[in-house]
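User: I'm putting together a small comparison set for a docking exercise, and I want a reference complex before I start. The sequence is below, and the ligand is flavin mononucleotide. Could you produce the 3D structure with the ligand included, as structure tokens?
Assistant: Of course. I'll restate your input first, then give the structure tokens for the complex.
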Amino acid sequence: MKIAVLSGSPKGKYSITLQSALYLQHHNPGDEFEIFHVGQKIRKYEDSAVMGEIIDALAAADVILFAYPVYTFLATYQMARFIELMKLHPKSKSLSGKFATQITTSKHFYDYTAHRYVQDNCADMGLKYITGLPADMDDLLLDSGIKQINDFYKRLRFCVENDMYEKRTTPKVKPVSFDYNSAIPATDKSADFRAVIVSDCEDNNSMLRSMIDAFVAAFPYNVDEFNLAEFKFSGGCLGCFKCAADGTCVYKDNFENVLRERILTGDAIIYATTIRDHSLGTKTKNFHDRQFCNGHRVMTHGKVVGYILDGEISKEHNLYDVIDSRSDVSNMFLGGVATNESRERSLTDASIATLAKTTAFALRGSITKPQSFFGVGGTKVFRDLIYLMQGIMKADHKYYKKHGVYDFPHKRYGFILKMKILGVLMRNKVISKKIGNRVNVEMMKPYTKAILRSPKG
Ligand SMILES: Cc1cc2nc3c(=O)[nH]c(=O)nc-3n(C[C@H](O)[C@H](O)[C@H](O)COP(=O)(O)O)c2cc1C
């Protein structure tokens, strides 16, 4: 087989993910591997001629292998930008019918959403997608990981030989286009709260601009907009970890100060964007990746988040999962997702007005909700990671200690002992019979008391 590897890590030859591709190359001398450092050299591919050349090389391969680290629920900004440029290029049509697969390394925090994102984009390009390898960053060092990567490659070969591939997971989506002029009247503004809209609105995006204006009109509190289209990022996150000790980024574009002083100070954060490539677009992706300067510290606890989306979000199941889980992990109340997908003015107005109303309601009432599996599971992955990496992730470690994120169950000696005693008693048939329904009755006691508790606050 001829494999074209699109290496999406900004770290180039120092990419951990790349080592998996190099492993496959080393152990399959009969196959031909060509490696493209698209993550490290992303600026080069902004040139259409250079992009045309790489597409020609991909067209000559049997399999396109996306090899990238998971960055904030999806691929790196650099990989995402490459995919965007690739899809926009007229030559991308020549790739239709080619096989594609992916290898990621990560700590498994939302690697499945990253995989679905790449899978959906492969489907858009008519590529025959074969299930990828979501590896842990240390898997290549383990016997189990070596078996898994070999199994992955065997399966890849088997699928190619038998022309077998996955069906697309997201239905085809179409851009939303209609004449939208909101009829929402402007409400008076109170300074009690402040929402920050993080948009990526280009001058020619009149649809998104009208949607943002409609939200501003409907929202009863102050609103600031931070337009990513106007901010000059020096580049995407480099994954250099230089920020791990004290949160200072190597770039001198002032992003971390803008983030901390202008955006994270808002009571609500509202993203406004056009859905592109099954994501919030590459500008918002860069915005999210660059927040790595705050490490794994949740800076938004108790705030409200909302989305103004130009596009068919109800078809974008994976993107919706990312939205939902991001708010859950960051302990934010999801005020809603407003959309124009109805392609009707009145329904779009209603959707935006609902977002504005719910956001205002949540702010006034300091509304909270428990984390679901998304947030609880994600936080545990981070908890274990930061504990192990405390030596370099000093700022995260300090924060986790202070905020009680280190909630390891193995220190709850009293509870563990209680359960051990109960276990011994329940395993004894005579005692168990005697206990009868007592366990249920005892368990209910604190809950019965809780029903009568008066609410605090
Ligand atoms: C900006 C940034 C975001 C990251 N986001 C995630 C994530 O969402 N989930 C995860 O499991 N790991 C995440 N990681 C960890 C990387 O995926 C992991 O270290 C990977 O193995 C690095 O691969 P590379 O050396 O090929 O770049 C992130 C790392 C960085 C720098």
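The pocket of flavin mononucleotide is lined by residues 9, 11, 15-17, 69-73, 105-111, 137, 237, 239, 289, 292 (CB under 6 Å). Residues 374-402 form one domain.
User: Thanks, that's exactly what I needed.
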